[in-house]
Amino acid sequence: MGRLGEFVVFFMVTLFVAHVVKTLIFIGHFTHIVNHSPGPCRVIEVNGSEDLALLNDGLVFVSSGLRYRLSISYDPVLDTREGKILTFDFNKADKNPVELTLKNFNRSGFNPHGISAYQDPSSGAVSLFVINHRPDAQAIEIFDFERETHSLIHRRSVVNELIWSPNNLHAVGPDAFYVTNDNLFRYGTVQQLLYMYILNNFFASNIVYFDGFKAIEAMSGVHPNGLAMDKDQSFVFASATHDNGVAVYRRRRDNTLEASQVIKVGAHVDNINVDPVTGNLWLATIPKILDIVAYSKNISHPSASQVLEVQLWKSSASGIAFPYHKVREVYRNDGKELSASTSALVYKSQLLVGTLSTNMLYCEVKYY
Ligand SMILES: *[C@@H]1O[C@H](CO)[C@@H](O)[C@H](O)[C@H]1NC(C)=O
Ligand SMILES: *[C@@H]1O[C@H](CO)[C@@H](O)[C@H](O)[C@H]1NC(C)=O
Ligand SMILES: *[C@@H]1O[C@H](CO)[C@@H](O)[C@H](O)[C@H]1NC(C)=O
């Protein structure tokens, strides 16, 4: 090998090492976790609490029992889990969550993931939308909430060829919603895992809108996970996996989306919730990606948790949607108190944090 050959090899090795180090930094491998919380906290024992959805009166829906593959092997205890929807009431915060009865619904293989509640502005009727990785299909189950009997009555299943790897959604009407496909490949396939680790560098996924009858691709060429909207339903916020941030989109009249900005937060953003009072974003993030992969193989492995608030000032009518914003850290933990945070929301100075496959955390919000 001549001098030039040696140089080329040296150059390639350097590029490769630089890429690996950059990736390790990006996925938080060297991130140091300093524990802090916004006030007194209490761990609430549940078998998974991947997503949370809040009603105006302080009642929270919790999706529990998700079986989601982050690697080839996963913790066998997850296969014994039963998919459930629970409620937690911020007005009785010392009480444990209560399971909802599912009526008119085939529970076999129920594998609930992202959820979203829609409250009819005039009648107050509540519908709950639940992503269900069913054995036979990727479905969005729409339930009507019946408060008196504490049950969910199944109304319809939406199965559509444009919805192949749903992760999170936001309801905009009794039958309409935006939903993210977090993967280019169908949920539960080997290609899905390959995409998760390698192919996503070359291909992107999308956000889909369903109007009650048909689905359209609302935004293509993106890497989304969690999704939420502002109260007026004019903006969509979706996690931007490749940017460690939140992508902000303007909703057009035809329900397609226009990219406006990315708010970087320095960690992988999972689910996003909008505080109905302030309009601020509440993010649960995954500060250390390798730890959540280890956790998915063994849920006793601690995986760090983090909650961030993104304060948004008034939106602008054109150009960058939110020129003024500020990111504040509310909670951070090495995983020993709370492992693998995936969703966070607030109600009257109280915080609830959900996790991929384990407990929830309730905190009083006094200082942060
Ligand atoms: C969690 O699941 C285990 C069985 O795997 C069960 O013994 C336990 O009661 C469940 N906990 C809750 C809070 O549902
Ligand atoms: C319920 O769902 C399971 C799994 O998708 C399916 O095998 C079964 O036939 C369904 N049962 C009924 C009564 O539809
Ligand atoms: C899971 O992790 C815990 C804590 O790190 C360890 O004690 C346990 O042996 C592990 N279980 C398996 C099956 O590896």
From TrEMBL:
Residues involved in Ca(2+) binding: 50-51, 115, 167-168, 225, 270-271
Cofactor(s) recorded in Swiss-Prot or TrEMBL: Ca(2+)
Q: What top-tier enzyme class does this entry carry?
A: hydrolase
Active site per the UniProt annotation = 113 (proton acceptor)
Q: Which keywords label this protein?
A: Calcium, Disulfide bond, Glycoprotein, Hydrolase, Membrane, Metal-binding, Transmembrane, Transmembrane helix
Query: Could you name the domain of life of the organism this protein comes from?
Result: Eukaryota
Question: Mind telling me which InterPro entries this protein's record contains?
Answer: 6-blade_b-propeller_TolB-like (IPR011042), Arylesterase (IPR002640), Serum_paraoxonase/arylesterase (IPR051288)
Q: Listed disulfide bonds for this chain?
A: 41-363
Catalytic activity field = a phenyl acetate + H2O = a phenol + acetate + H(+)
The record's cofactor note says:
Binds 2 calcium ions per subunit.
List membrane-spanning regions: 7-30
Pfam family of the protein (one): Arylesterase
Please state the Enzyme Commission number of this protein.
Answer: 3.1.1.2
- Give the GO molecular function terms: arylesterase activity; metal ion binding
Q: Which family does it belong to?
A: Belongs to the paraoxonase family.
What is the name of this protein? Paraoxonase
Species of origin reads: Pocillopora damicornis
Its organism's taxonomic lineage begins at: Eukaryota, Metazoa, Cnidaria, Anthozoa, Hexacorallia
